[in-house]
Amino acid sequence: GAAYRTETQLQLREDHAKARDAVHAELNLQTAFGPGFVEKWNLFEVTTRASSKLEYLARPALGREFSDESRAEILSRCLPGNNIQIAIGDGLSALAIQTQVPQLLPLLVDGAKKSGWSIGQTFVIHHCRVGILNEIGELLKPQVLILLIGERPGLASAESMSAYMAYQPNRSHSDANRNLISNIHDRGLSAQSAAARILNLCSQMMKVRISGCTLKERHAMLPSDADR
Question: b/e for 162-176, b at 16 or more Cβ within 10 A?
Answer without folding.
Answer: bbbbbbbbeeebeee
